[in-house]
C-alpha cells in the first residue's frame, strides 16, 4: 500500500484561481440531428481551438463497431474554455446541429 | 527525486528499471482496485472525457468548485488506475526512449487514441500510428478490436529506435503511457493541443510529469538560427533577439530534448534536473 502522506506529491495549478469564476460559451449539439459524428467529423477537423472530442459510446469486447452506424459515436464539446465563438463549426455542420450561445 | 523514482526506482530512473516492465504488473495492484475493477488499459473513454468536462464546468462556478473538481479527478484516477496524485505519465527524451525499447518486449505500433478523439482520424490511417504499446498487454490486443482497429504492427528493437528517431525529427514530444502506473504500457508521441495528456498538463496541471532533464544553451556555440524555437511545445524556448541566440526558460522546460536533437551546432545539451538545485522539485 502506498503511503501518500509521506510522499511529496507535486501539485501544479496553471489556472489562476483568483480569476475564477469565468464565463465560457455554451455549445449545444442536437443529438437527433448529429448521429454519425465519427464518419462526418467536419466539426472536429474545422475547429481551430480543438474544442470537440469524439468517443465510442459502447466498447464491446471482441466486437468492432462501424462508424457509419448511427448512435455509436458521440461528439462532445469538451474544451469550452477555449472556444472563441468563431462559428466555423456552425457553418460547416451539414445537419445544422450545433448552436453556440454565450 | 520524482515520486515514481522514489517509489519504484530502486536507485535509478524508474522507467529504466527492468522491474517495472514485469509481467505481473499488468494486473492492477490490490490497493488500486478500490474503483470499478477493469483490466489495465481499458479505461472508460467517456469517464475520462467527463472528468475534463467537469473541470471546465467547475471553472465557471468558482475557485473552490474548481479545486474540488481537480481533487476529485486526481482521486478518481488514483483509485481506478493506481497512479499517485493523478500523475499518469512522464515526458522522456529520445535518449532514454532508446534505452527503454531495449528493455521491453514485445513492441507494437498502435493507433493514437487522442488523435482519433480530437481530429476524428481513423485508426487505419497510417498517419495515426504514433503510439507504441509495450509489454505483455500487447499480446492480447486481438481481444479489443474496437481499441486496436488499425491493427498492431510488431517491431524489432532496431526498427523501434528508427521509428522513434523519425518521430523525433517530425517534432513529437515522447512520453510514457501509464495505464496503471508501475506497469509501463507504452510510448506516446504527443503535440499540443492534440494530445489530451499534454493539454491537461499545460492547462490544468494534471496528468503528466516533467522529465528528468532540462535543456541548457551554450551561448558560445549558439548562432541564433532559431530552428529549436519552432520545436518547443511548452513555450520555454524563445529567441533572445538582443543577443541573437536562443533562450530557455528552465522553469518551463519539460526536458523533452526536441531542441537538443534539432540543433545543428550541438549548442543545446540536456542536464539532469537533480543537478540543478532550484529545479529539483519542479515537476
Structural category of chain A is: alpha+beta
The structure class of chain B reads alpha+beta
Uncertain regions of chain A: pLDDT < 50 for 5+ in a row? none
> What is the average per-residue confidence, as pLDDT of chain B, rounded to a whole number?
85
Low-confidence stretches of chain B: 34-42
Question: Could you state the order of secondary-structure elements of chain A as H and E?
Answer: EHHEEHE
The percent range for helix content of chain B is 25-40%
Oligomeric state: heterodimer
Number-wise, the strands of chain B total: 11
Biggest interface found: A-B, 46 and 48 residues
State the helix count of chain A: 3
Number of strands of chain A: 4
Largest sheet of chain A: 2 strands, antiparallel
Distance between termini of chain B?
A: 9 Å
- SS summary, helix count of chain B: 9
Helix share, percent of chain A: 10-25%
Biggest sheet strand order of chain B reads 4-2-3-6-5
Distance between the amino and carboxyl termini of chain A: 47 Å
List the helices and strands and how they pair.
The complex is a heterodimer of chains A (102) and B (283).
Chain A: E1 26-29, H1 37-40, H2 42-46, E2 52-56, E3 73-77, H3 88-92, E4 98-101
Antiparallel strand pairs in A: 1-4, 2-3
Chain B: H1 3-8, H2 45-61, H3 63-81, E1 87-90, H4 94-103, E2 107-110, H5 113-119, E3 131-134, E4 153-155, H6 157-170, E5 173-177, E6 186-190, H7 196-204, E7 207-209, E8 213-217, H8 227-231, E9 237-240, E10 245-248, H9 258-262, E11 268-272
Parallel strand pairs in B: 1-7
Antiparallel strand pairs in B: 2-3, 2-4, 3-6, 5-6, 8-11, 9-10
